[in-house]
Amino acid sequence: MNTSPASPVTWKNVPTRTVSAGGVQFAYRELGTENRGTPLVCLIHLAAVLDNWDPRVIDGLAARHRVIAFDNRGVGASSGVPAASMEEMAHDAISFIQAMGLKQVDLFGFSMGGMVAQEIVQMAPQLVRKMIITGTGPAGGEGISQVARVTYLDMLRGWLTFQDPKQFLFFTRTPAGIRAGKEFLLRLKERTEGRDKAITVAALQAQLKALRLWGNKAPTDLSKIHHPVLVANGDNDRMVPSQNTHDLAQRLPNSELVIYPDSGHGAVFQFHADFVARALVFLAR
């Protein structure tokens, strides 16, 4: 008889569940449910599904917090028609949070998810306690309307070199950046069973439209957002130029800024140990 203890639940093996909200079956995963305090809801990046979250980041945050990540409407295993604006994605996220029975949450938004987080906190300020937004920028930010162009170019670059486009989109081409990208991509493959469905071309096109709209949108008065915000990025982000991160930190009155050296869009994955430590301190403060 096998009496060995069950394997601990981690991002590698946590089951995918669903919850119904607004006629949509949202696929989600959650860790750290034994932890008290404000739950942390994660908002994913362009073209991503649940399997695109870095296990080191999610497991690290879940060591002290209940962490919940979900697929956007029409993306991965979630049903429905993909949203084509940040506002629609924010409405969906609010519906999901409410369907989960959560009265107040912290938000962790990476890239496109950070844009959605900005919309959520303005639509439902009472729903949010704190925000962590990384690799992202404000509405109308420098270069954001060009994300589609950069994405397609690096998809072609990846195809021509037999590499994952994220190696180019998320990381610098320095030795440290190339190494970090390879390590990150290996971590994304650690989950071998119960993996999510890949994003469809239609969903990707809807998200690229949302990014174009966000990039061309008139700037928002972010001085009205008084929630504590941790803003982070690399010093050489090609997808959402790093100047946007500095701009966000200046325009958010209760923010703190972290810029990682020799890193790009995926800096928080490259420096995952430092980022998780900083995030935990920020959330506990």
Automatic annotation (TrEMBL):
Residues 39-269 form the AB hydrolase-1 domain. Gene3D superfamilies: alpha/beta hydrolase. Pfam families: Abhydrolase_1. GO terms for molecular function: hydrolase activity. The keyword Hydrolase applies. Keywords: Hydrolase. This is Alpha/beta fold hydrolase. It comes from Pelomonas parva.
